[in-house]
Amino acid sequence: xxxxxxxxxxxxxxxxxxxxxxxxxxxxxxxxxxxxxxxxxxxxxxxxxxxxxxxxxxxxxxxxxxxxxxxxxxxxxxxxxxxxxxxxxxxxxxxxxxxxxxxxxxxxxxxxxxxxxxxxxxxxxxxxxxxxxxxxxxxxxxxxxxxxxxxxxxxxxxxxxxxxxxxxxxxxxxxxxxxxxxxxxxxxxxxxxxxxxxxxxxxxxxxxxxxxxxxxxxxxxxxxxxxxxxxxxxxxxxxxxxxxxxxxxxxxxxxxxxxxxxxxxxxxxxxxxxxxxxxxxxxxxxxxxxxxxxxxxxxxxxxxxxxxxxxxxxxxxxxxxxxxxxxxxxxxxxxxxxxxxxxxxxxxxxxxxxxxxxxxxxxxxxxxxxxxxxxxxxxxxxxxxxxxxxxxxxxxxxxxxxxxxxxxxxxxxxxxxxxxxxxxxxxxxxxxxxxxxxxxxxxxxxxxxxxxxxxxxxxxxxxxxxx
Length: 467
What we know:
This protein is α+β, with helices and mostly antiparallel strands. It folds into 3 domains: 2-150, Beta-Lactamase, CATH 3.30.450.20; 199-294, Helix Hairpins, CATH 1.10.287; 298-467, Heat Shock Protein 90 (2-Layer Sandwich), CATH 3.30.565.10. It is built from 10 helices and 12 strands. It has a 5-stranded antiparallel beta sheet. Strands 7-9-10-12-11 form a 5-stranded mixed beta sheet. Strand 11 and strand 12 (435-442) form a beta hairpin. It is rod-shaped and about 160 Å long.
């Protein structure tokens, strides 16, 4: 932004200088040349008047020669001719004006200006007293070096003023750009830190224009309220966890005691009650996990996704083998992403748990990881029964489940964790039958900042799997 401000100010000043200074210089230069020509014509006319006294009246010869000698000291070249074309006075031969110029001058009635190299020549007819005929011709050559020098100085001054104006404008623009951009850069950094989970970050609100200061102040108010809400949410989760788990555990213990002294029919009912309590416990744990995922503020760190996949596959392989399910993993090398500490493990655990609940003996689950320029892609594909289109539409909603005893919260947790880290999750059918879950997470860059996945929110055409 600072560069754009500087370039915009310089372009504006350059346009103003070009609009004002350039025409002014052209007009002044033209006026100087016009004055120069008029002065030369006036000098030639005065010389012609003295020559008329010499040629027509036979007087004024001395005055003519003195004037010619005076002009010679100022680098003028003068030639005075009589009616027959004989030179009667002068400081130097007339410049080459082309053939027939003297003949044409004998019949002229007004001075004629000829531009030559580095000078102008004014040819003035010498008229008699009555003004009825020409009695001679005066050719006055004046070098243009003086007016050329004046015009060069003029353009030099205009150029110097323009350059000084551009330099001054550049200094002002740089100062203005820094004044505006520095607090905005700090505000951007604070917003980045807040998005990465540092809820205590604040932006300086004492620098820059008043609008920027108000923006920073409003950002700080927003950050403070967000910090308060998140901390309140976390405190509520801790209270709910304590208040619900303790009575559930006590209730389960009492039912166990009752079952010991009950007959077979009552014991069966108590066993069903125990299953419902266990399901309620899983539901509470799932809701707490979803709430933690939604209010996740863990600062992202660089994680080797391929290494995490290998460790989770190793941890889940015994459970898979017990069900007769083949669990494998593959990657195309180092796959690096930025995600909160432990969150990728939580995502994979939920996906593997869902897949193992869905597939039957003889099925397979394949986890692959690959890196793209902008993302780390993790694919979990199974050969189970898959999902219907309607099930996919509601896959990430809380409590959306078709499996008996499921809570419908596993994929809700996956969704919240993926989206909170700037990623996206989609579903597709596995070739040959089954379901494929594709997770895209921001790739870890050299600068340490993640690249957010375009359209990181769920798209309605992309369906997610349910528990």
